[in-house]
Amino acid sequence: MGNRVAVLDVGSHSTRLLVADIGPEYRMVTLRKELIPTRMAEGLSMARTISWAAIERTSEAMQKLLRVAHEDGVTRVFCFATAAVRDAENRDDVIVRISHETGQLLDVLSDADEAGVGYFGIDGTGARGIIDIGGGSTEIALGSEDMPSAVASMPLGTVRALDKFPLGNELPDQLTMEAMGQWLERVMRDQTPGMAAKAKALSPMRWHGMGGTITTLAAVDQSLATYKSDRVQGYVLTRPKVDALFTRLSVLTVAQRKTVIGLSPERADIILGGLMILRTFMEMFGISVVQASEKDNLDGYLRMKLMNEAAHHRENQEGHHD
What we know:
With 322 residues, the protein is α/β, with parallel strands linked by helices. The chain has 14 helices and eleven strands. The strands form two sheets. A six-stranded mixed sheet has the order 8-7-6-9-11-10, sandwiched between helices. Strands 3-2-1-4-5 form a five-stranded mixed sheet, with helices on both faces. It starts with a strand and ends with a helix.
């Protein structure tokens, strides 16, 4: 097995790359993480299909990231896709076209698998949980062992929220914001039956927040003009901090948000949807603190693949000895 591998995540908001070296006992050392915003889920909640323009943007981004990976000397590439491809009525067309243009076959994760790979992505022991806010869906997983004991994948995401409740480029309309908040609460309650109680039963537990919304909020709260992974990893977002960020950003136009230090311009229009998902989650689950996590479903997917390979290798060896 070659020891330098790449993973591509074809997401609803962006296409992302992880390059890692695999050491003894399948240990991972991250060498590079990059993303290109592609908005694959744009218009999906209304049209129920992914547009050809979005497929083309994603294909071009994948080809660019694959070139980067091969320049880094990777020997294998894994590719997976999440909510946008999973939910699209033209998913088969998307898979065929991307495979034809990039040479990569997409592993389309089920909603439960998507929640599981996020959980695998975090390091740690003891009671822990993750919330992974994406463009097309939001995953929650919790447990105290290597495998999560409860998972949920909700059709709530930053791009999907903006599709459903367009806020425009001027000051956000309060009625639209309230309608978005009610929708988030209703869907979250329907999609996570009993999970808040399971989380309370595991407490004290540590919650990790994944995805661009949460890492961006950590950067904005620290006014990071240049994104610094070591400053974002483990950064504590308390409920008062999250409320203060919402109050600050919700009174700005999209153009004004683009000038906020720490907030990348391509997230300026969707950050409020992500913030509202996080606030709703913390309120419903009674959570006072979420730690930002640089490790996420890219790390978790690779870890899951390596765990499966290790198990397969052991089975083969045992078969030889029989």
